[in-house]
Amino acid sequence: MKIYLFHSNLPFVQKALQEHPHAKAFWxxxxxxxxxxxxxxxxxxxxxxxxxxxxRAVEVLPKSNCTLGFETIPTPSTSVQSSIAAYPSSxxxxxxxxxxxxxxxxxxxFYHPWKDEGAVSALRNNGIEAExxxxxxxxxxxxxxxxxxxxxxxxxxxxxxxxxGKPTFCMQESIIDFNTPMRRxxxxxxxxxxxxxxxxxxxxxxxxxxxxxxxEHLTAIPRPSEDYVMIxxxxxxxxxxxxxDWWLDDITSSLEELKIPYFISQHPREPRxxxxxxxxxxxxxxxxxQLQSSSLLxxxxxxxxxxxxxxxxxxxxxxxxxxxxxxxxxxxxxxLRMVRTKEELKRAIEEMQVKNSWQEIDPVYYRxxxxxxxxxxxxxxxxAKVISSFAKMPAKHKVNAIEGYYGLLRQFASYMKKxxxx
Length: 422
Fold this sequence. Notes:
With 422 residues, the chain is of the alpha/beta class. It has helices at residues 10-19, 31-37, 51-60, 91-103, 119-125, 135-140, 152-163, 213-216, 244-257, 287-293, 304-310, 342-351, 363-373, 379-390, 401-421, and strands at 2-6, 24-27, 46-50, 66-70, 84-87, 108-111, 131-132, 143-146, 168-171, 190-193, 206-209, 229-233, 262-266, 279-281, 296-299, 315-318, 336-339.
C-alpha cells in the first residue's frame, strides 16, 4: 500500500489518489502521530512524504520504504480570514467547536429551525448568537464546519454547501460506529479525525489527523483515595434502549454486593427516567466534573470511555447485550477492560478497586493511547490550521441531491411529529 504524508500540498495528494486507487493520504502535524503510524501499517507500506515532514519520518518509519515524494507549498495561516459557516447540531457539538472558535473567531454559527438539540441555548450561554440558515450565509461562506454528516438535516446542509463547490469539514466528535449503512463521516469533503486508529476503521482514503478538541484540556489526575463508581447510562436514539434497565441492574446490584458507592450519570437525551436514587443528570458541561469525582467508569459504547482514560480513570466497557459496533477501543485488560457477563463485571470491579490497583496511570500507556485514539494537546489549533489552509482550495464533489432533499423531508416529518406530540 502507498500512503502519502502531507502538510500543505493537498493538490498533489488529490491527484496522486486519483492515479493510485488503493492509496491513502494523511495530513499530519505532530511527531507523536508519525511515531504511531507503524503500529497500524506493516513494513511493506510505501511512504511517500512531503518535504517538510521527511526528516522526521525517516527517523520513525522504515527508512528503506520512505521516499521524498513532493514539495511543500505555501498555505494561508489562521490569521488569513476565511469565512467559515459552523453548524453545531447539539449542545455537545457546541462544546466541541468552541475551542476551534477561539482560533477562528470569524466562524459564523447557524441553526436549522427543524433541529436544535440545545445548541442555540448552549451558544447563547457562551455569548454567541446563532443565525438561522439562509442563502446569505451560504453565499458569504468559503466552507462548512460541522461534526455530524449523517443526520437527516446534516445530509441536506452538506449537500447544499457541496453543490455550490464549497468544501465541508467534518470533525470526528467522538468514537463512532464506522462503516455501516449510516455512512458516518463518509459524506463530508474532508474528515478531521481524532487519532491514527480511525484511519484503519473509516472507509475513506484522505484523512486529516487533527486530534479532538474535546480531549485537549483533559489531563490525567490521581484517582480519589476511596472508591466511587460512575455508571454512564447513554441509551439514546433508539439504540438498545430496551436493555437499559437490566443492564443498570446488573451493575448496581454488583456494586451493592461489594458495598461500593456509585452514581448513575444519565445522558440528557435518554427518553425515560431511571428509578434509582443515585441518578445525576448530565450534559457536556458537567460530565468532566463527574469523571473527576469518580474512581472508575462503567459504560456501554461511549466517548466517555476515552474521556475517562484522558482523565486518568480506568474504565469497564460492559457489553452483555452483544452490541457490535465498528470501533475498536483496544482494551488492554488492565486499564481498560471489556466484559460480557455479570460474573466478569463483578470480578473486574473488585480488581480495579482503588485498594487493589494503582492510583495513577502508567505515563507511557497514557501517552500512546491518547495519540492513537484521541490526539494530544493543541487539537483545536490543528483543526483551525487545516481549515485556514484548505477552505479556499477548489473542491470537487459528487453531490447527491436525492439524499440531501430526502434527509430534509425526513427531518421535517420528525419535527412535525414532535410538534404535534407537544
